[in-house]
Each structure stands twice: as C-alpha cells, then as structure tokens.
Design a protein that fits this description.
With about 180 residues, the protein is of the alpha/beta class. The protein has six helices and nine strands; from the N terminus they run βαβββααααβββαββ. A hairpin with a 2-residue loop joins strand 8 and strand 9.
C-alpha cells in the first residue's frame, strides 16, 4: 500500500494505515515545505511522519516529540539569534543529522530510511524527491518561501498564488 502524505493530517492518516498494514505500507511525504535554518536541514513533514509512526509525537504538537523543551531556542534568542521559527530541543536531532548527511553527499531518501530503522518504523517513509524542492507563496510584495510566509510573516500579507521549484544539479525548474 502506498500513501501520499504531508503535514499533521497526512501523518495521522498514515499512522492509521500503519496500524493496519505495518511493513506493507510505503508513505511518500511532501518535501515542498523543507527549509534551511541556522545551517540545519529541516523537513517538517517527514519529521512529523517519523514521530507519528514511531509513536513519539506530541499530542499537542505532532511536529515535535512528546515532552519537548525549548532551552536551545531560548539560548539562541539570548545570544541575539532569530526568535522564529521555534524549534524544540529533541526536534533538532533530525535536522542536525540530516544536514550532516546531506553535506557528505547522502540522499534524503537514505537518511530518512535510516531514521525509520533507528526509530523502529517498519513502514517505508520516503521523501517525494531527493531534489531540493521549495514551495513559494506569491504575495502582493513578491514571492516568499512557504516557511517564511507561515513562520515569519504569520500568513500576512494575503497570498495571490503559490508555486513549487525543484533545484537540481542543473539549476531550478518550476513544477
């Protein structure tokens, strides 16, 4: 069984399918909302999926593990760093390891499958692409990444449209 998923709703659906199908499930996860921040590689939809299928997602915020704290974020702010987006301490582990893996030439698929193995997830969780794909929201002030629109601009100003671009070795292509 193959499921296409993204965000918390997709993770909840996949979790229900996982309980029925176990290792017969493959989930292809959105990477259009991925972003870089403070030198780390964030894949929020993949991480939400991993936490959900591993049974460690917070009931209040499924994009973080249960029992999350924000001490690192508080220290980053105290040192003059950005106050948004807010990342939990335990939730920083995946972006740290993902950034290191990508810098050494590993594919996002390999890294994600390793995370599944280490978290005891029998299903296959795959990124929708190993290319760097980003969603842009078109506003009256120009295009901004989805993450900037959501976290930095709090969904203001109103959006006109969105587009997705994938970066390959040859440059950008619009999808």
């Amino acid at each position: 069984m193959v499921a296409l998923a993204g965000q918390v709703g997709g993770a909840k659906l996949a979790d229900g399918l996982y309980r029925l199908r176990g290792d017969a499930l493959t989930v292809v996860v959105n990477t259009g909302d991925d972003y870089e921040h403070l030198g780390l590689a964030f894949s929020p939809d993949i991480d939400t999926m991993l936490y959900s299928l591993a049974g460690i997602a917070s009931a209040a915020a499924a994009w973080e593990p249960e029992g999350e704290t924000h001490s690192v974020h508080a220290m980053v702010k105290a040192l003059g760093g950005p106050d948004r987006p807010i990342h939990g301490d335990r939730a920083l582990a995946a972006p740290l390891l993902r950034a290191e893996g990508l810098m050494t030439g590993r594919r996002l698929t390999e890294i994600t499958l390793d995370f599944c193995r280490h978290l005891g997830i029998a299903a296959r969780v795959l990124p929708m692409s190993d290319d760097r794909v980003r969603t842009y929201v078109l506003t009256e002030h120009g295009a901004v990444t989805f993450q900037d629109y959501f976290a930095q601009l709090a969904c203001e100003p109103p959006c006109a449209a969105s587009s997705t671009r994938a970066q390959t070795r040859r440059g950008f292509r619009t999808k």
